[in-house]
Structure formats: C-alpha cells, structure tokens
Amino acid sequence: MQTTMMGVKTDNIQQPTIEPQVHLKDKKVKKLVADNKRLVEVPYTATLAHTLNALVANQVVAVPVAAPPGHWIGAGGSMILESDKHTGVVRKHYIGMVTMLDILSHIAGDKPDGGDEGLDMEERMAVPVSSVIGHCLESLSLWTLNPCTRYVVG
To answer: Helices 48-57 & 100-108, crossing angle to 10 degrees?
Structure first.
C-alpha cells in the first residue's frame, strides 16, 4: 500500500494512460479521386435508365448533370462552368447532381397529378435526368474544390 504526502492511498487509483499521439496528415483534394479517374457525368437529356447504368458501371452513387451554357440555372443558383482548355470558350454548365437516392425516390413516388394508373417502370425510367434533380435535398447544392486544395486527415 502506497501513501502520498497528503495521506491518500494510491494503490487503487489508476494512473492516467497516455494515448498515442494522432499525427494529422495534410493531403490534397485530388487524392480523393480513386486512381485519378475522370469525372463521370451525364448530359441533361440522358434518361434515368442511362443515368442508372452510368452509376452502376462506374461504381459511384452520384453524378453531375451537364447542360449547354446559358440555358439553365444551376442547383442552388450555382454557375459551375467548364471551359475549353485551349480557347477558353465555355462548353458545359453543371446544373446539379443526381444521386441514387433521387432516382429511387422518383421510382417510388406518386405521379404528380395524384393518379396511380399506368405507373409503368419503363415510363418512370424514360424521363430526362434533369427533371429528377432535387428530389432529395443533397442534390440541390453544388460545391467545387480546387484539386490542389489541402485538407487535414486525423
């Protein structure tokens, strides 16, 4: 039995354990992209069937939807544009993201007019992907990050 100078027994008191230090690592956004693959995207005219095939074939759960510039307002009022590297001319306007959850909620949802007659799966999958943007709130926000932006991993 140990006694300290204050008379407190210390044999039953656990000594504080020292946790191993966590080293924070500084990484760049471009390292998040697996194997430096290209961006998977679908045009605004693609059907839900084509979009679902793109999701499954590329093993992703969301894709950006690209449209010609000047015809659309992006999700959340964003203006995310892609320009030609050589000429600087704007080629694409990303108008939103479509997630697997957007597609599933569209498939499971009722018809807008309230009727449930003719709820054919082929009809539901033939709608343009641009009409499904925003079925779920997460697809209403577009964020862009510079590939050289750094983030910290714990």
So the answer is: 140
CA of residue 79 relative to chain centroid, distance: 17
Structural domains in the chain (count): 1
Is 69 within the bounds of a domain? yes
Q: Does the reported pTM lie above 0.70?
A: no
Helix, strand, coil shares of the chain as percentages rounded to 5? 25, 20, 50
Residue with tokens 């910290």: 152
Identify whether the C-beta of residue 2 lies closer than 8 Å to the C-beta of residue 10.
Answer: yes
Name the residue range of residue 49's domain: 41-110+123-143
85 domain-assigned: yes
Radius of gyration of the chain measured on its C-alpha atoms: 26
Three-state secondary structure of 41-87: CEECCCEHHHHHHHHHHCCCCEEEEEECCCCCCCHHHCCEEEECCCC
Read off the CATH number of the domain in which 68 is found.
Answer: 3.90.1280.20
Over residues 31-71, the pLDDT tens digits come to 776 666 778 899 999 999 999 999 999 988 899 999 988 87
Domain annotation covers residue 20? no
Measured from the Cβ of residue 65, the count of other Cβ atoms closer than 10 Å reads 28
